[in-house]
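W.,

You were right to be curious about this one. When I first looked at the sequence I had no strong expectations either way, so I just let the prediction run and decided to look at it fresh. Below is the sequence, 263 residues in total, followed by the output.
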Amino acid sequence: MATMQSDTDPLGTAQLGAPINNMWEPSIPKVTPTTTCKAIGYAQKSLTRSGAIQNNMTHPLATLNSLVVDVTTQDAITMQIINIYHAVPLTGHNLCFLFSHELDELTPTILIGDFNTHSPLWSLPGCTPLSWGGDLEEWADHNGLKVLNPHRVVTWVGSKESDHPSILNLAFANEAAHFTNQLSSMKVSLSDSLGSDHATLSFQVYPLDHLTLQPPPAPTGYKPDPERRDAWMKEFARLMPYTPTYTLMEGAPSDQSHSGVSA
């Protein structure tokens, strides 16, 4: 990797290694002196020391360009986060390792990364779908994954005038993650990406035993259609245990909104 720059060289001397912060522990794929990787994760050191965040290098999806992080509580995996950078070759794609793997449907799973893939399911209008975009859609559907990205919100802007804004960074969650109600809505921000041409994708994950699990969405309610007044009044009357009979009180104005009741 060559992502770190020297603080003493104004021109910026590329150095091997990941950016280091004494409050954060990096999760890096298993590299050798002759290999590079393009996927990395960070976790607060207090979480890594407690074993709550673990870099799973033995997982089948753990490669030089993909990272698998297990979030655990009480020795059980409560969520798995898979971070992928899809380095597109000159022909075809490099996602065969992903398409040949089936996710555990019982483990809440987040799949997130730079997929460099266009598809009508998430791309902007006018983007030419790539041949493997359909394969990614089919694999995601087979594994119960749903796109978390807000609809048609750009995640890449490019650095050239000829570049067209696109949606290349994607996040998916499986049904188990949605069922446990652990996820907040996702935020896409270019301003938070510190000058990168790729936007940050951020959301909150709540442990199962957390007191602030996301509440279920509030009911939207109903708005009666005035033209169907007689129909819904008849239906309400049918559902009521009894049907009262109302008569207008003698001497009351005809436009009075309330009335007396007679047996």
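Here's what jumped out at me. The first helix runs from residue 45 to 49. And, maybe more interesting for your project: The chain has two domains: 16-202, 226-261.

Coffee later to discuss?

I.
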